Amino acid sequence: LATSSFPLAMPIKTINEPFLTLTSGAGPTRWSDGCGEIVGSSDDYNIQEYFSSYLKQVDKRAEHMSITIPFYLHYVVEPNEEIPDMIFAVVIQMQTTSKYKIIPDIHVPYLSHKKSCEPADGCQIVEVKFSPIEPVPATFNIRIIYSNAASSSYIMALKPIVIEFHDIFIPLKHSAQCLSKPELDVAFSPEQMFDALWQYIEEHQYSRKNQSFSGAKSIVYLDLEKEKVETILEKLDNHIIKRNDTEASVGVFLPPKHHFLLRFVLHPAHAVVHVATDRWQILASLATFLKYGRTINVENSSSMVV
């Protein structure tokens, strides 16, 4: 048969003004288990040896660590002659930074304005699986491809997704649960985990003599009144190990395999935060987060070319 006997594919049209967006808050963030099987015995176990086994397992499973964040996919403009009230065969594509693994395309069979006119119950939810290669904040440019009822195809860039530094925080308490082995009558409290990790970091700090180490300790001075420091601690509530009126200890696991610890010393007009981490490169992002509550300005991010 001659090629001319087949109809030519219709070109994909570009929509310059997006009528959809992705909004976070569609459900709790989930994370994969980075601990694996901890090797240990209940007979005269040594906390540092058992902790060393945990670190080896975390390093081994780092390649598989991920964080899944649910988003609402919904309309931001009322349907009209140009905007259909229902679209089909929706493909969501995300432009991944070099610090994250490639995110596979996400497919949605159809999307209707009636069901997804706002980010609320009943709205279409899509789950995005982020797999950090480095524990850093990032901006992900997004585009979608879809068809209308007449089978015409369109492509449209959406507002970027911003993954802030605190979006990838996993409670250190989760890691402490990994260390606990009820069948061996071995239970590590979050406080023990915090202390063991702090000691490990102190012994593995980066220096000219020990360039193979990546640990570091630092101090962040917060020139903030106690009420504003409390706002920071509220954001870190799931990560607080212990606290009283003058001090607070915070422990965080950073995927794929790192940690940081904070010891807040609270004063009426300021706070001093003692920091320990096994990844010294995150100190700048951590200081920015503590001082300003965020690390990325989405307005400075570029849009995906469509």
Automatic annotation (TrEMBL):
AP-5 complex subunit beta-1 beta-barrel domain sequence ranges: 87-161
GO BP terms in the entry: endosomal transport
Annotated AP5B1 C-terminal domain residues: 192-291
GO cellular component, one term: AP-type membrane coat adaptor complex
Any Pfam family matching the protein: AP5B1_barrel
Domain of life (superkingdom): Eukaryota
Protein name: Uncharacterized protein
Species assigned in the record: Paramuricea clavata
Organism phylogeny: Eukaryota, Metazoa, Cnidaria, Anthozoa, Octocorallia
